[in-house]
Amino acid sequence: MKKSKLFGMILMMFCFVFLGTLAMPHKGDIAYAKKITKDSQAVKLAKKKVPGAAVFEIDRDYEKGNLLYELKLIKGTKEYDLTYLASNGKLVQYGWEENKINQTSQKKVMSQSKCKSLARKKVRGAAITSIRLKYDDGIEQYKVKMKKGSTRYELEYHARTRQLISYEWKKAITPKKGNSNYIGVERAKKIALAKVPGATVRKVEFDKDDGVPVYEVELIKDVYEYDIEIHAVTGAVLDFDQEIREDIYDYE
Questions:
Q1: Fold classified for 185-244
Q2: Are 131 and 144 in contact (CB under 8 A)?
Q3: Is the CB of residue 157 less than 8 Å from the CB of residue 115?
Q4: All structural domains of the chain with their residue ranges
Q5: Phi and psi at residue 195, in whole multiples of 5°?
Q6: How many Cβ atoms are within 10 Å of 96's Cβ, its own excluded?
Q7: Predicted confidence (pLDDT) at residue 175 exceeds the cutoff of 70
Q8: Is the pTM of this model over 0.70?
Q9: How do residues 34-83 score in pLDDT, each as one tens digit?
Q10: Rounded to whole angstroms, how far apart are CA atoms 40 and 164?
Q11: How many CA atoms lie within 13 A of 33 on its CB side?
Q12: For residues 118 and 74, what is the distance between their CA atoms, to the nearest angstrom?
């Protein structure tokens, strides 16, 4: 075999190996596809899910011990809500709401059976768990709740135009292993109420403060508002704050 021909074959083999290496996913890419560790990764996933949309809000929250990335996007006349599980990058909640709605339609209100038919076509194979006609934002709307496996759906239809004006699905989240020793929301409420007897609990949120799992309990009593931070495992009160409520005053 001539040297020039042999050199050509070697060069061709080198090119194939080099191009194949470029095409292979890098370790960092594989890890990124499985886990979210920063906001920019969540934003990239959301923009891929809703091409052309702009992200205007991103937040982190915990549910059943799992870290979640919650994003709000806007595209055209719709606002989107997407939630990703940080541990594997999976989308566990997706929804959108139409901002441009016909407020003056004089068409006849569609029947409940017609609305059910539209919902079943939208989410094939799902069972309708409830449906009701309500008056909201100046229009009649049908609110339909559905379930398919571990996924729950909520749809809203304009009762006169039959337009789907909001759509949402949410997957059930499995409690993170190792979190069975959390005291739970009800226990956190009791601990907070023991600190402020006779108060009313406004809100309870699970969070992690510098890596420490906590329940943040907001209460009100008379003219005061209380914010109590409770260790989610030991039940110890880590922070107690009392201040005069602003919502009892009318400002002009």
A1: Nuclear Transport Factor 2; Chain: A, (3.10.450)
A2: yes
A3: yes
A4: 35-171, 185-244
A5: -80, -30
A6: 20
A7: yes
A8: no
A9: 799 999 999 999 999 999 999 999 988 778 778 899 999 999 999 999 99
A10: 31
A11: 6
A12: 25
Strands 127-136 and 139-148: antiparallel
Q: What is the model's pLDDT at position 63?
A: 80
74 or 23, greater pLDDT: 74
Contact between 176 and 63 under an 8 Å Cβ cutoff? The reply is no
- How far is it, in rounded angstroms, from Cα 58 to Cα 54? 11
Residue 101 near residue 158 (C-beta atoms within 8 A): yes
For residue 17, how many other CB atoms are within 10 A of its CB?
Answer: 9
Q: How confident is the model at residue 140 (pLDDT cuts 50, 70, 90)?
A: very high
Measure the CA–CA gap between 70 and 85, rounded to whole angstroms.
9
Q: How far apart are CA 210 and CA 214, in angstroms?
A: 10
Q: How far is CA 18 from CA 5, 14, 21, 24, in A?
A: 20, 6, 5, 10
CA dihedral 147, 148, 149, 150 (to 10 degrees): -50
Residue 18's pLDDT band (cuts 50, 70, 90): very low
What three-state secondary structure class fits 103?
coil
Check whether 3 has a pLDDT greater than 90.
no
Cα–Cα distances in angstroms (integers) from residue 219 to residues 36, 185, 235, in the given order: 34, 14, 17
